[in-house]
Amino acid sequence: MTAHQSFAEMLRAWRGRRGLSQLALATDCEISQRHLSFLELERAQPSRDMVDRLASALDIPLRQHNAMLLAAGFAPQWPERDLAAPDLAGVASALDYMLAQQEPFPAVVVDRHWNLLRSNGGAVRLVEFLVGPLAPGAPINLADALVAPNVLRPYLTNWSDVVRHFMRSIEADAAADGPGESAALLERLSRYPGVSEALRASPGDTRASPVLAMRFRKHDVLLQLFTTIATLGTPQDVTLQELRVECFFPMEEATDKLLRSWESATPRARERSPAAADD
What is the pTM of this model? Predict the structure, then answer.
């Protein structure tokens, strides 16, 4: 949402995005359709409780819920802390535990817009194998790394299938979040060469595998990985709601053995990861 939108404009936009009629939303919030209409026409001002009820009924993310409160003249309700904040130490410890448990396979923690926040040794070893060492502390956006033509794409043999699936997930995020960073990310990724062609292309044989594997090849080495994505349950912080933990798993035995051999060859690799640097 832009800073110049009124509460009424936000309400109309979110109701339209969710595909709800005024009657359906009013029923969910236990108010009259007439009152909802007055709110959308700026003929009535919402109470703080009404903003909260509408945000809940519309399943509005916490960041945008705060924006609606501000637009209605109220202070934000949901905090947005840095992941290194002392009162998030328990969550940070849990994330590090998840990353460590995923070894020797790759795992990363990213925010809603795929900025890398933490990674384990398996992720570092995979990236270093494919593209070489990364500059310490350099910001990394995994969406750009996947979609851009000169990072992971040269090594991803089924890039078109993977990026088509990934872009659909970004589109879903933009639809769920409303105008803002997710929409800007979608627009930026869409401008990369080959993306529009990938989105128009027909998918491969979906019967060949139960999940879409990412197939990396460098020289004579082939790696086949599939991923899972986890989020935190019942978050009450903007930062935590937007966190994702992506874990990579080997699709076949050869990849499993190779990833395990890399860990044995570089037992201190995790110490170079962002997660370890925060310990």
Answer: 0.86
